[in-house]
Each structure stands twice: as C-alpha cells, then as structure tokens.
Amino acid sequence: MLTDDQRREAAASILRAEETRVPVVQLSRTYPEMEIEDAYRIQDLWAEQRIARGARLAGHKIGLTSRAMQMASKMTEPDYGRILDDALFNDGAQIPATRFIKPRLEVELAFVMGEDLEGPGTRIHDVMRATDYVVPALEIIDYRTDVPRAITDTIADNAAFGAIVVGGRVFRPFDVDVRWIGATLSKNGIIEESGVSAAIMGHPAAGIAWLVNKLADVGAGLKKGQIVLGGSFTRPVDIAPGDVIHADYGPCGAIGVSFT
Q: pTM for the full model?
C-alpha cells in the first residue's frame, strides 16, 4: 500500500502527463508496492484535481469487459474510470488528435440514467429499468504512462479513458434487444472492426450492474442524467491526424467523426 503523499504524487504525475502529452514512467515501477486500492484512490485524486479546475463529472466508463482482456491483464473483473464533461463530443465532430498521446477508438453503447441507482445487489434488470435511453457511442482510449502497463497503471490512469463520442439513434432500453446490436467501424473508408453488443459480458448492461455494486463499496452510485459507457465490443483501432471514422450501427444509426 502507498502513503497518502505517494498517492497524491502519482495523481499529479498523471495530470502532468495529460497536460504535456508526454507519458510518465509506469506508476507500478515508480511505486512497486502499489495495489488495486491505491490505483483507484489515485484515480480519485486525479479526478478531484480536474474537477477543481472546472471539469464536471458526467458519468463513468467500464473497461476489461471481455474475458480475453481480463486474462491479459490478470484480472477477474472489469475496471472503471470517470467521464468528465470536457471530454464529450457529438456526431460530426472534428477532434484534435493532438489532445491525446496515442489515441485508439472502440465501439460501445452508452447508457444514460433516468434515475439514481445504487448497490449492492444490483442486477441487469435493475440497470435496464433505471436507464432512460441508450445511444451508440465511441470511446477514445489513451494512456498517460509508458508501456508495458500493469493493471494498477491502467486503473490509476482513469482506466485509459480519453474521450467519448455519441451519435446515431437514441432508443429506450426495452425498445430493441440490446444484446444483439451489431456495428462496423471504418477508418478512411475501410472496415477495420466489427462486433455485436452481446460480446460485452453477455449483455451490455451486465458491466453497469457490476459498476453499481463496485461503487457501493466506496459509498457511491450512479446519478440521474449520468452517462455510462458499457464496454467495447470491438478491438481498439489506432487513430492519427487526418483519419475519418464511420461507425455503422445498422438500424441504430451511425457516428461519423474526423481527427485533425
């Protein structure tokens, strides 16, 4: 375990890397005694600093929702990070690639809460009932630390969250079978990835139920109006300046963005 001073130093280094676009040495190397609990506390402190500077908490993201990614990270459960309002983009946006260090893009669904939701004991049907609507989304992931990264590095680094893009058709959670939403992800006119939402832990609301129960351990939950990224159902695609992205969700619409 780390001391409070070490946790604050680590959070400051992540914030500095975010501001300078220069990755820092892995926190797991700087603080080899760092544990999962430390990593989430570092994330807390990073978020507190960003909010103190004017950002607002808009929701949460969930990562490591696939078994393959959990095994690669030597984890048995997902992880989570925060979504801040200054990292929200809409369909058609021109996004400066230079605001990130090494951006990559993932295809996801975003759930917008229609009521507060708290654990423990939250299940998929609780998430569906508490959700106001679901909307297609892209997550831009980015890392502020060097490679290779331990899971503690990723968690402390806000679960590698960079930004979110929303677009396409807004729908209520029971209007479609949210398990079987398919999508293709094209870069510069070439389909790079495709997937189906059932790949997210068998149901895209499963990760959100996990998140609510996890937040209950620290006396928190989801609030009405917050947005939650449920996890990716494609592999990440590298992004560079000049790239044009099109994510086609079929009947659920599409998202198009470009990177400058």
A: 0.95
